Amino acid sequence: MQLPNPLKTSSFLQKLQWVIDPVSYMENAAQQYPDIFTAKIIGFGDTVVFVNHPQAIQEILTNDRKKFAAVGAFNRIIEPFIGNYSVLTLEGDRHKRQRQLVMPSFHGERMQAYGQQICDLTEQVFNQLPLNKPFLARNLTQEISLQVILQTVFGLSKGERFQQLKHLLPLLLDLFRSPLTSSLFFFSFLQQDLGAWSPWGKFLRDRQTIDQLLYAEIAERRQQPDPERIDILSLLISARDETGQLMTEQELRDQLMLLILAGYETTATAMAWGLYWIHQKPLVREKLLQELDTLGDSPDPMSIYRLPYLSAVCNETLRIHPVVIFCFPRVVQEPAKLLGHSLESGTVLLPNIYLIHQREDLYPQPKEFQPERFLKRQFSPYEFLPFGGGVRRCLGETLAIFEMKLVLAKVLSGYQLDLAGKRPERPQRRGFALAPANGVKMVITGRRAREKPLVNMISTSVF
């Protein structure tokens, strides 16, 4: 059976392009086949079918576990990092059990408790920057994201273990910094332990040290439970499934490593892109500041979270540069048809987030940053899906969006910034995400005082 619209480029060149420059690879393919095409890439077997049409994606995601099933084995590419027991690699009932155990930790009410922590951390990081000296915004958003994880996920803000994790986690994640270093995860023959100075050898040793710290923290929490703690680790330790079983130490460790990988890289990247576009578009920045100024000097985090234009800015940031390229892979369970194409059982499907977000029929002028499009129209979960969809939708979505909104609001409200880079930013592979290639070079020119709304100024002058 002929797979739909196979690309003509050789298998080797496709795989190389996919690792080095996935954006150009996808866009060139979509010019030929806007809705669906068959590709040869690394990580999901030899052949996959990219699906770029909202109707087809809806059919795939609403038939989870039936016609099109999610198979955790296809995420083995990141198994060296997250292990075998995270929600990303498990399947069937084991995945469902683990997801039910983890999901309550990300309930909206839980997020409110983290709001002030996020705002305080943002201020601490930015207050350390000197005026008129260029810095890379992505380095700062990584620092904020890391500390948010350590405090909200691990419940750590001081002490030796906190300092060790703060030092080691960025070193471990540094393997994702470029397409070249990311290739260690895509090409298994590069995963050779040639000693502590070799890239893979260093990764293994850093991972072992981090594992020792995590298992020690888990053991202490087990021995000294504190019902007053609200960090995610404490909630996971006390979570029980339908049979009353607790999560094992290995399961807890793997969930924590997944939260680190997902929460650190993706959220930091999204916030850096947000700062870039807000300062690239002066009218967007001005409109956003006007909205933020309506909240007063000490706004409640939940009031910030509900701001409509801030929400539109964040959505447009995640649309134009989704940090994750595609949804969780699905496998055809029985012969099926999709967009008129016949698919055999066993065919691997990748609903393509990036290409959906670039469709001209959904988002006119898709390369233009236009937050207003999210105020004019409500997009379906199959047209706008930065966090994936179906039963594999990202569990950390609520925390990621909450953090993104609060950090952007805090930075914009308190500091005057300008872009310092001479070239426009472009997306580049950073591990499994698409990050700004130059890190978003910026400069702080001063502190910002809130402008009082005109009505307040008039009433003050009258009385």
Task: Write up what this structure looks like.
With 463 residues, this protein is α+β, with helices and mostly antiparallel strands. It has helices at residues 11-20, 22-32, 54-61, 79-82, 92-102, 108-127, 137-153, 160-173, 179-186, 199-223, 232-238, 249-280, 282-293, 301-305, 308-320, 353-357, 373-376, 397-414, 454-462, and strands at residues 36-39, 48-51, 68-70, 135-136, 330-332, 336-338, 341-343, 348-351, 415-419, 427-430, 433-436, 441-447. The strands form four sheets. The chain has a five-stranded mixed beta sheet, with helices on one face. Strands 4-12-9 form a three-stranded antiparallel beta sheet. A two-stranded antiparallel sheet has the order 6-7. The longest helix is centred in the middle third of the chain and has 32 residues, at 249-280.
Keywords:
single chain, 463 residues, alpha+beta, Cytochrome p450, five-stranded mixed β-sheet, three-stranded antiparallel β-sheet, 12 strands, globular, disordered C terminus
What's the short version?
The protein is α+β, with helices and mostly antiparallel strands and 463 residues long.
Secondary structure layout plus pairing:
Layout: H1 11-20, H2 22-32, E1 36-39, E2 48-51, H3 54-61, E3 68-70, H4 79-82, H5 92-102, H6 108-127, E4 135-136, H7 137-153, H8 160-173, H9 179-186, H10 199-223, H11 232-238, H12 249-280, H13 282-293, H14 301-305, H15 308-320, E5 330-332, E6 336-338, E7 341-343, E8 348-351, H16 353-357, H17 373-376, H18 397-414, E9 415-419, E10 427-430, E11 433-436, E12 441-447, H19 454-462
Helix pairs in contact: 1-2, 6-7, 6-18, 7-12, 8-10, 10-12, 12-13, 12-15, 12-18
